[in-house]
Amino acid sequence: MSVQKFFIKEGIKESQIEEFLRKKFDKAGYSHSEIQRTPLGTRIIVYCEKPGLVVGKSGKKINDITLEIKSKFELENPMLDVKEVEEPYLDAQIVANKIAKGIEKGGFYKKLANYYMERVMQAGAIGVEIRTAGKLGGERGRFQTFKQGYIKHSGYYADTLVAKGYATAILKLGMVGVKVKILTQMPEDLNEKSIEGILNEEKGSKENE
Question: How far apart are CA 167 and CA 132, in angstroms?
């Protein structure tokens, strides 16, 4: 097997493991996982809001899932480790999941988006953007963006400081996509005054449109 094919195969396997873990730990507030290959085996670190639901009583649940991963994905000596997300409202994937679940339960998407934006900002974010797309409130597809604070959309800070998450809500009319971006730290070349100026400029340009 060529090096290129090997990495493609491993990439597909990691994607499949991620999807498997997302379904298994959905009720635990799953965020994401990291896969580390060591001389002793494959270490899989699961990040979630409620680790107790992952581990189970006396660690039985996590042991069972480890064996299932070993069999299903043919991994040698997999080791499953669970870490708690310290501030779930600064984790874009967890927030996206919460909004999608709220929509599935019949919650109004605007109310959910505004509620979670407030929670994100209260948790210490510099800015948050929530986008919803799908058949919301009618037969026709609708796309809407909600935003508070300051968000970087491109460049170094967008890649390193902006947490991103995506989730889907399944409704009778079809699927609804939820994208969340959270700027978790102040960019080095900006401060509160400069961000305030940028936001005022954006507000003024929108009012003049």
Answer: 10
Q: Are 59 and 53 in contact (CB under 8 A)?
A: no
Local structure of 185: helix, strand or coil = coil
Share of the chain above pLDDT 70, in %: 84
Q: 185 lies in which domain range? A: 88-208
Together in a domain, 99 and 182 = yes
Contact yes or no for 77/38 (Cβ under 8 A): no
Q: Count of domains in the chain? A: 2
pTM of the predicted structure, to 2 decimals: 0.83
Distance CA 172, CA 175 (A): 8
Q: Is 105 helix (H, G, I), strand (E, B) or coil?
A: coil
- For Cα atoms 169, 107, 87, give the angle at the middle one, nearest 5 degrees: 75
96 and 154 in a common domain: yes
